[in-house]
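Researcher: We're teaching a course module on how sequence relates to structure. For the next exercise, students receive a sequence and then see the predicted structure as C-alpha cells, so they can try to spot secondary structure elements on their own. Here is the exercise chain.
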Amino acid sequence: MNAKSIFHQILYFCVGLLIIFFQILPLQTTPQSWSGPNILLVFFAALVIKKPEFTSSFLIAIIFLIEDFFLMRPPGLMSSLTVLGLFILKRRFENQEENSVVVIWSNVAICLTSVLLFCYFISVLLFIPSTGFRLILMEITATLAIYPIFSILIGSFDYLDSANNERKIQR
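Model: And here is the predicted structure for the students to work with:
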C-alpha cells in the first residue's frame, strides 16, 4: 500500500461521508411518495469498476456501516451485502482490460439490483420495518439510471493523471 493508495482511500472516505451528510439533511419533513437513487452505492460501484486498486473491502464496509447507523437501518445488513456484491463485481472485472459499456452496465445492474432486493427481502423476512416494494423498485430504477453518469465522471479523472496517460501511450 503506497501513499497514493492511502490518499485515494482517505479521499473516497471523505466523499462517502459527504454523500451521507447530504442524505441526512432535513430538506423535506413530510413523508415522500417517491424514492431517489442510492448515490453512495452507485459511487462505490463506479469506483470498483474504474479504479479497483484504490478501493478496499474495509473502506466499503466502514462507510456503509456508518450509513447504516445514520439512516437507522439494521447495522451491518446493507453494508455486508454491499461488500459482498462489490467484491464479486471487483473480481469479475479485475483482469480484463477492455469491456463494452453494455457488459459492464448489465453486470453492475445485476449486482446493485441483487444487493437492494436482498436487503429488502431479508428485512421483510426478519420483520424489520422497511419501505414498500414499490419504493424499492423506484430506488433500483433511479440508481441504475444514474450509474452511467458516475461511471463517466470517475473515468474522466484518468485523463488528468499524466503517469496513467504515459502508460496508455506505451501500450
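Model: If you want an answer key for the exercise: The CA atoms of residues 17 and 66 lie 8 Å apart. The longest helix spans residues 101-125.
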